[in-house]
């Protein structure tokens, strides 16, 4: 069974299926390094890689699309648990600033986090 058949359900829009397919291809090509003993080193690289690929923008934004966040987490966790962890921690860490931060705080912290 295709892991992505559920993206045809009415809950998802075509953009979600497209994002899942893009993330799946990226994860296949880029997450081979995301396994090993040195979790700190791996997570630092993952945050950098996820940010460069544009995926952290989904976790660090004031226009959250929880469906996109959920499907990205599914894809990342399938390939490497630390990839999901690194993705979600960026969102959790920036959440208070997204929700209640001043424009100055958002400018200072959110752009570097994404």
Short summary:
With 114 residues, the protein is an all-alpha fold. Helix content is 70%, strand content 0%.
Describe the model.
By secondary structure, the protein is mainly α. It has one domain: Orthogonal Bundle (Butyryl-Coa Dehydrogenase, subunit A, domain 1), CATH 1.10.540.10. Helices cover 70% and strands 0% of the residues. The protein has helices spanning 14-30, 39-52, 56-59, 66-79, 81-100, 103-113. Helix 2 (39-52) packs across helix 5 (81-100), helix 4 packs antiparallel against helix 5 and helix 5 runs antiparallel to helix 6. The longest helix has 20 residues, at 81-100.
Main attributes?
single chain; 114 residues; mainly alpha; Butyryl-Coa Dehydrogenase, subunit A, domain 1; 6 helices
* Distance between the amino and carboxyl termini: 34 Å
> What is the percentage of strand-forming residues?
under 5%
Count structural domains.
1
Question: Which structural class do you get from the secondary structure elements?
Answer: mainly alpha
Major sheet attributes:
none
CATH H level, superfamily name: Acyl-CoA dehydrogenase/oxidase, N-terminal domain
Radius of gyration, taken over Cα atoms and rounded to an integer in Å:
15 Å
Determine and state the CATH class. Mainly Alpha
- According to DSSP, the number of beta strands is 0
Structure annotation, total helices: 6
Report mean pLDDT, rounded to a whole number: 89
Low-confidence blocks of residues = none
Per CATH, what is the topology? Butyryl-Coa Dehydrogenase, subunit A, domain 1
Gross CATH architecture: Orthogonal Bundle
The level of helicity is: over 70%
- SSE order: HHHHHH
Q: Quick one: overall form?
A: flat
């Amino acid at each position: 069974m295709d892991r992505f058949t559920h993206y045809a359900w009415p809950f998802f829009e075509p953009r979600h299926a497209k994002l899942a397919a893009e993330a799946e291809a990226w994860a296949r090509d880029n997450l081979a390094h995301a396994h090993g003993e040195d979790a700190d080193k791996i997570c630092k690289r993952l945050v950098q890689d996820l940010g460069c690929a544009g995926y952290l923008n989904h976790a660090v934004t004031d226009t959250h699309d929880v469906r996109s966040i959920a499907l990205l987490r599914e894809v990342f966790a399938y390939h490497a648990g630390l990839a999901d962890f690194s993705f979600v921690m960026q969102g959790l860490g920036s959440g208070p600033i997204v929700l209640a931060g001043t424009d100055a705080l958002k400018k200072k912290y959110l752009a570097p986090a994404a």
